[in-house]
């Protein structure tokens, strides 16, 4: 069975039906970038509990469905505009960036392209260098092209290696420059406001698979947690070579986020059972070697 | 502090034969820094980053090592620990500032920990200083839905039996049953049985039956000292269960009970009684077989 990685999905907003469907469709690993919640937070404690959820409960919840969950940590650009709060979040981040399963600093960058956004974007680029993590850049909805260029200019200004930076939410207008400058170009299949699968297929046809990554960015808005496998299937139908499908929906994400040292194929191919009692036999290698271990029935949680 | 340092020495020795040299070097340099400088942020960072140096392979301790652990701190049982949590425990025990700073830091660590870090912290409770001050933290920890975190508190851990008030203890045991955890690994389970817990267990069984579900066989261990007429009715049902483990549990509960009207039932199960007498049927065996069946 094909394996996919969805390297950008906000799983705290998704149901167990989604998890089951994702696993069934072949998604073995996901990355959940720290973002906003649809409305701005007003207390630093809300950030703390959110960050703890990303490395705690959500990671566990995903494991119950046989999906390995990673995350990125960061202060998003929208909430960077509340400067007093943003400063407190910056003090909190060092507690989280070194944790297991944190594969990048992100999603950071610009929204309205304000001075405050610029300040906290730069501070977090420095943080990424300090702890040797890749960076996931969120590019703005409005004034996108200039915002994307500026994100890359500033990343370079801070000495970031473009090979360590994923520029997200690209479209036909931004992709060329991102690839030409050596950055990774991620595409969000989010039909109403971002990309559709058909457009994605055309981009892979035109630019090839190198440094191109497909994600769903599924969240609390109208979005599709199966966008990655669906786009992969459409690519196959449209005659895109299998190796190109594999690179754009699996391997490229693993290669760049794997730079963190926190993400390995063995995490899902040889997943240890979470339940320690089942580990006593000592054999955590899978029969057949392909299907990840599932934690167990998901109906024994208290709710 | 003396015990803390002895625990560190013991745990380092366990890792010494199991972890890689460069990982041990990292750990030793971190513990020295943490001990000398006592800066919470350095301690937090090392605690998180330990996952880059140590694997989650179980320690697989020898009988002698387990015995030494128990001699070190009463009830301390790292037989299910992994290398990573052992390293993290060494870091926690090496951080030795004055009480107020320690409590503040350890609480911050609990509040910002991911699940494997929480597992390490809760399992290390018996080795920590200021045990009385950690009670509400441990009780709160039982509210988790993450199995590995719950297990770290409830199973193979002397802290709950020695510190939890009865109501919290009962909640923990019942939750373990709800989550189908192996309760034979809860320390002092028999010593801390009580009438309220027996009644809760029986009520829980009735709820499960009403919903057409099975009852985890180990549950009947909780009612043994309190078997009277009403619980005997429950057990009559259990001993004739089609599920072999349930039947074994029912018969074993009656066998261990001192309530004489119950004993007649045993006559119907001569083979099981004999197996009990030969030690072939025990609570631990039933618990293990049940977990095996679930897996």
Task: Describe the fold and architecture.
Chain A: Belongs to the metallo-dependent hydrolases superfamily. Chain A: GO terms for molecular function: hydrolase activity, acting on ester bonds; metal ion binding. Chain A: This is TatD DNase family protein. The complex is a heterodimer of chains A (303) and B (295). Chain A has helices at 16-24, 44-55, 57-63, 83-92, 94-97, 115-130, 144-157, 175-180, 197-207, 227-237, 242-257, 266-269, and strands spanning 4-6, 27-33, 68-73, 102-109, 135-138, 165-167, 184-188, 212-215. Chain A is α/β, with parallel strands linked by helices and 303 residues long. Chain A has one domain (4-285): Metal-dependent hydrolases (TIM Barrel, Alpha-Beta Barrel). An eight-stranded parallel β-sheet of chain A has the order 1-2-3-4-5-6-7-8. In chain A, α9 (197-207) packs across α10 (227-237) and α10 (227-237) packs antiparallel against α11. The radius of gyration of chain A is 19 Å and the shape is globular. Chain A starts with a strand and ends in a 34-residue tail after the last helix. Mean pLDDT of chain A is 90; it is low at 274-293. Chain B is elongated and about 70 Å long. Chain B has 295 residues and is mainly alpha-helical. Helices cover 62% and strands 0% of the residues of chain B. Chain B has two domains: 1-129, no CATH class; 192-295, no CATH class. Chain B has 17 helices and no strands. Chain B starts with a helix and ends with a helix. Classes of the chains: A alpha/beta (303), B mainly alpha (295). At the A-B interface, α2, α3 and α5 of A face α3, α7 and α9 of B.
